[in-house]
Amino acid sequence: MDSLVSFVLSTANLFGFYALLALGLGLVFGQLGVVNVAHGDLVMVGAYVMYALTPVPFPLRVLLAVLLAVVLGLAAEWAILRRLYSRGMLATLLAMWGLGIVLRQLAEAIFGATPRSVEAPIEGSTVVLGTPFPTYRLVVTGVSLAVVVLALLVVYRTSLGLKLRASIANRDMAAVLGIPPRLMIAGTFAVGTLLAVLAGALQSPTLGLTPGMGVAFLAPAFFAVLVGRLGSLTGPIVGAFVVALLSSLLRRYLTETVAELLFFAALVVLIAARPAGLSWRLPSWSTRTRNVA
């Protein structure tokens, strides 16, 4: 029982982390058509902000990291991406790849290559169903999932979200209806950047900080978006759950190296088998049966 509870809580923690990353990636790809390969490096930025501002209270550090993320996202969209949209996906992908390199080199120049760490603001463990689990990881799991739920509520229950979904579905028609496309594009990239930086800031006490740490998070986040269906906003959340569950299961029974090998192999097979992504809707025959009843 103890091991099962620990497994569920660890999976939930990993799910919250990947859900933030995948939602940010999905938003940017859906609205901008940009494959943001610097997304993992933005996680690194959030973690290093927490380390650099160590004397500052933890909640304030998170707030400052979020503000920096908005500024960084708006600046990157204005200075880099805005000039490249017309040149196609390859141009924006290479630009984001270059931005990731710049961020890594800048972090190494400032902090060095020596691994760093961030102290958790909450020490100790909390007993859940008889199983002790680090209290901070419980708090981070709750905060991460709350942010994801809040983001989905904004997307599906507000006028701003309606405009965003309209812009993703048909940008030209949205512009005709008075939705400012340039503002929506810049805001979406800023939000995507914010989610990645926030994920790094929240998880920083559980991570070993190095300039290249973000590269390890990029592939799972991309797989989460692909598994959950391209262009969907809720799909990346479903994909993040699949990725977190699969990763936790493999690491529970196998060594780290073998688990990582099988993890990526399984995801490649899953995407090859379901290139359109997973479906979480009821099949049509089930709907017809309910209507007849």
TrEMBL record:
It comes from the Bacteria. It is found in: Cell membrane. One of its GO terms (cellular component) is plasma membrane. Keywords: Amino-acid transport, Cell membrane, Membrane, Transmembrane, Transmembrane helix, Transport. It is a multi-pass membrane protein. The chain crosses the membrane at residues 12-38, 58-81, 88-107, 136-156, 183-202, 222-246, 258-277. It holds the Pfam family BPD_transp_2. One of its GO terms (molecular function) is transmembrane transporter activity. The keyword Transmembrane applies. One of its GO terms (biological process) is amino acid transport. The keyword Membrane applies. Belongs to the binding-protein-dependent transport system permease family. LivHM subfamily. This is Branched-chain amino acid transport system permease protein. It comes from Geodermatophilus ruber.
